[in-house]
Amino acid sequence: MWLIDKVAEEKIKQAIEKGELQDLPGEGQPLRLDDDSHVPAELRAGYRLLKNAGFIPPEVSIRKEISQVESLIQMAQSTEQKSQLSKKLDFLTAKLNQCRKTPTNLTLESEYAQRLIAKIR
Description:
Elements: H1 3-18, H2 44-52, H3 58-75, H4 79-99, H5 106-120
Helix pairs in contact: 3-4
């Protein structure tokens, strides 16, 4: 255990003993952890810090919106709805490409993920 971890644990124990951690919002409830698997590991802590401060990086919010549009396309009944949603998906993909240094090919990423899952199984 690192020195900083030991110091933090000691401070937490002291606060518990003094009763400073009682009656806090959410006490006794499980933590709600967000799925940040689409964020590179080296950026997760920084992104989480920004999110807790009320800022979500554009790339993350765009990816979330892309995921929602893809779900809507699968549920769409008419070809007109699918066409409109596909146009929105194309727009969001272009917007995502502007946020990144390298263009995104969501089809390739999805195919790669499916092949990876198939190998793991």
